[in-house]
Amino acid sequence: KAGVTQTPRYLIKTRGQQVTLSCSPISGHRSVSWYQQTPGQGLQFLFEYFSETQRNKGNFPGRFSGRQFSNSRSEMNVSTLELGDSALYLCASRSTGVAYNSPLHFGNGTRLTVT
Amino acid sequence: GESVGLHLPTLSVQEGDNSIINCAYSNSASDYFIWYKQESGKGPQFIIDIRSNMDKRQGQRVTVLLNKTVKHLSLQIAATQPGDSAVYFCAENIREGYKLSFGAGTTVTVRA
User: Which of A83, B27, B47, B53 is the most buried (most CB within 10 A)?
Assistant: First the structure.
């Protein structure tokens, strides 16, 4: 089975621009989550989707948004980019809608650099 | 083997020794715990998980121990190999939540 696929792997943007990141979960997985990883803050939860519905959202400003499509693929968008948005953005999927039944499986991330 | 009583950001281990990585979790309502391994340039890779109704779980060369009384989690790696060099994260899932809270991570370096 193919793992979680994230595109693109690397992105360089300038302040004020917006960016869209894409994630394809493991086949059959309906829950998709997004995390931001930085050296200073570690891994921080952004949001989680299940069957196209956002079930939980982390403590990030409204510039960060996401969505999930009917085929479980997901995108996240960051508008009005700031230097502090430079990070590794990780997408993860799990096989069930029940959080404590199965682990998250992560992709290799999109490295976003804001200049 | 090498062990860490409290969480330390780095751990240096001799190849062939056993490693113990510790983690303190924050929420007594957490019901599910996972250990991840992250190598340079890659996303976190699932190692082993444990539910709150268990104290111990074993996998291939790895054992996770859960002490709910003191909210402590540990990962033991037997016969540490060079390929075990990575950053290790513990994560907790709060009951009925849909997000994981991650620890700060421990960088394990295996000495030949």
Answer: B47
